[in-house]
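User: Can you help me understand a structure? I only have the sequence.
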Amino acid sequence: MAKRKKKSRLPVIVIALVLVAAIVIGAPYIKEFVSATSTEGDAVTIEIEKGASTEDIANVLKENGLIKSVTIFKIRAKMSEDGSKMNYGTFTLHKGMCIPDIISALAGTYATRPTVKFTVPEGFSVQQIASRAEELKLCSKQEFFDALKDDYDYDFLKAVPFKDGADYPLQGFLYPETYEFFADATAHDIINKMLGQFEKEIKKIQIPADRDLYEVITIASMIEREALWDKEMKTISGVIYNRIEKGMRLQIDATVQYVVSKGEYNIERVTYADLEIESPYNTYVSGGLPVGPISSVSLVAIEAALNPENHNYLYYHTDPQKNDGTHIFTETYQEHLATMN
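Assistant: Let's start by predicting it. Here is the structure, written out as tokens:
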């Protein structure tokens, strides 16, 4: 009897390898292809010209980071009833949207969720951010404060200590920016987005390995609150470092305003009595830096904290003649007093 020849398993193995490769290569594109709407992603405004073809539209979307594959978009558009109904004009989309939802949005059939524009200026404190979130009916102040205690997965937070006496550990790390949130966003969503923006921004500058991030942000927050003009930030930073080097108290008015207003900064002046309030934030009473940051900070303020101007100034006050928020800087207390009027 003739022996049967064993069938080769090679074709099966090859097919399996091809399938695995296809899955690995195609994984980044799968979520674009399915109809799963994401609530994450920055808002992006695009312009579709009149007469644009499906490929033209796909190219615009890819250039703006809204899709990864022109080919997949064209295939999905052909499969969709809305694919032939896409319009020209200006559209605001989100980077978290899948292709079916993008097509529906361009066709005018996408059921958009209401959004809220949320602007956080430079120098806003956690308390002010919470107040604004409540004003916009995104969440209550208490919900915001409670969410500050949640866990957030960002590497830089490993360098943020939980200091005794500090109001909120995340003070200074909620990046000031204009955001757009879905109207049903939670306080956790808001804080997470702002922390993510901080992480993105901080990567644009080099924090030396020997510098303490918490200390840098603390100094930057004082600079942010004290300087009305960016051009003066490094000069004010130099004053702070000069006073630290000489063992002088910083006597930063913004730290007193933070204490007196409970972080709301809704007072214009501080009194002599205010200067004597016992608080780890009050740099008229406590030596060295305040216990923590007193506001959110911009990249300009962070860079100023890292690169103070080299000078001998120890004092400054607003220029009473110009009255434009600029300061007069002096080296001695006598000069400081002489330029007050």
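Now, to help you interpret it: Strands lie at 43-48, 89-94, 115-119, 178-182, 315-318, 327-330. The first strand starts at residue 43 and ends at 48. Let me know which part you'd like to focus on.
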